[in-house]
Design brief:
Length: 105
């Protein structure tokens, strides 16, 4: 059976089920799986469990692509500066802010 590559995964505690949930991102699809574990598990344990769960499901997932709890996976490439949700800032030219004389009244 061929193994599919997972781009990233996110791990969080599911309060309703009292289990950990991993969201494995493969292309446009997101596969959700739960497992039992201690709620206060350290990030390395969560990362290892997420990689194992992905492997059990037939996905190849690198440990550095797993974010747990409040951690985030760094996107590949440079991140744009953002001022509002979804609105990227353009590079600033210092000359755009040249002092202009104030008009006298």
């Amino acid at each position: 059976m061929p193994v599919l590559h997972a781009e990233k995964a996110e791990v969080s505690w599911d309060n309703e089920k009292s289990k950990w949930q991993v969201r494995i991102h493969v292309g446009d699809e997101v596969i959700r799986r739960h497992w039992k574990g201690s709620k206060d598990a350290d990030p390395e344990t969560l990362r290892t469990d997420a990689v194992r769960t992905a492997k059990d499901e037939g996905y190849d997932l690198a440990g550095d692509k797993v974010a747990s709890k409040s951690e985030r996976v760094a996107p590949e490439g440079p991140a744009p500066s953002v001022c509002k949700v979804g609105q990227a800032l353009s590079p600033v030219n210092p000359g755009d802010f040249a002092a202009t004389p104030k008009s006298r009244r």
